[in-house]
Design a protein that fits this description.
Metallo-beta-lactamase, Chain A, 17 strands, 7-stranded mixed β-sheet, globular, alpha+beta, 25% strand, 22% helix
Length: 272
């Protein structure tokens, strides 16, 4: 029996002798199955293929954890160091004993929270290794391909994890799409860890919002306005997106507000 992983999204499935016929997450219109058809691997195979973990200190108390070479969507996780216990935000498919040793050196991990199903990856493996709970929004329960008792499905609009560390449901990309607000980030001015629920774009003065990124399916103006209004009360100077280089370093709250307004105008006004 193997816990097969989809090579396109990196999500791990419940144990089976043969790989599933298809990945429901990639069959959904927000994702895709590549031109070579559905492809599968396992974490054990990746460990034999020379993958390694990569670490970047984004700021004091915030460590990016990625994999090289890039795998699947290529996102990196973020370790929020906290006196009440470190939190891992979002998840990536690859890790090994060296990764575990490095995170233990940094104080270990006491909780894992994930923004949306494209980043569920090997979450159960991570939770088992660090003996920690996983926090997912219940609106995305149907997309969990490997159920486990360590998963806590939370409901509502917010879920505090630690002092100053709060999950906020924004929806949009997925119904349960979540961001993490870290009040102590950016020297106490606040940071938002957004995955791609709020997407940091190439021009890092701006962000964007989509129903599907690879297939370029936009959200409605009403949905973007709702996301804007939901996050507006939260104070944050900086945004960390889903990849190492996707950061809005300053004035991030204003960037989200003006980006949402620009998006809504683009949908409602004639092209310039």
């Amino acid at each position: 029996m193997e816990h097969w992983m989809c090579q396109t999204c990196g999500v791990q499935f419940a144990a089976s002798k043969q790989p599933p016929d298809t990945c429901p997450i990639c069959s959904d219109e927000r994702q895709y199955i590549g031109p070579d058809g559905q492809q599968w691997t396992t974490l054990a195979r990746m460990r034999q293929q020379g993958y390694q973990s990569k670490y970047v200190e984004h700021e004091p108390g915030l460590i990016g954890v990625g994999a090289t070479p890039s795998f699947a969507i290529g996102q990196r996780a973020l370790l929020v160091r906290h006196p009440e216990g470190n939190v891992l935000w979002d998840c990536l498919s690859y890790f090994d004993d060296t990764t575990v040793a490095e995170l233990e050196r940094l104080g270990g991990v006491t909780a894992l929270a994930i923004s949306h199903p494209h980043y569920y990856s090997t979450m159960v493996e991570w939770a088992d290794r660090f003996d920690m709970p996983i926090y997912l929004h219940e609106a995305d329960r149907q997309w969990v391909m490997r159920l486990d008792d360590r998963i806590t499905f939370w409901s509502g609009e917010t879920r505090p994890l630690k002092e100053g560390v709060t999950l906020v449901r924004l929806g949009g990309h997925f119904a349960g799409g979540t961001v993490l607000h870290w009040a102590q980030g950016a020297d106490g001015r606040g940071a938002l860890l957004s995955g791609d629920i709020i997407q940091v774009v190439a021009d890092q003065r701006w962000v964007s919002f989509m129903y599907s990124y690879p297939n370029l399916i936009p959200l409605s103006a009403a949905e973007v306005a709702r996301i804007r209004d939901t996050i507006k009360p939260w104070r944050f100077e900086r945004i960390y997106g889903a990849w190492f280089d996707r950061v809005v370093p300053q004035d991030a709250h204003a960037a989200v507000m003006r980006s949402a307004d620009r998006y809504i105008r683009a949908l409602s006004e004639p092209p310039r």
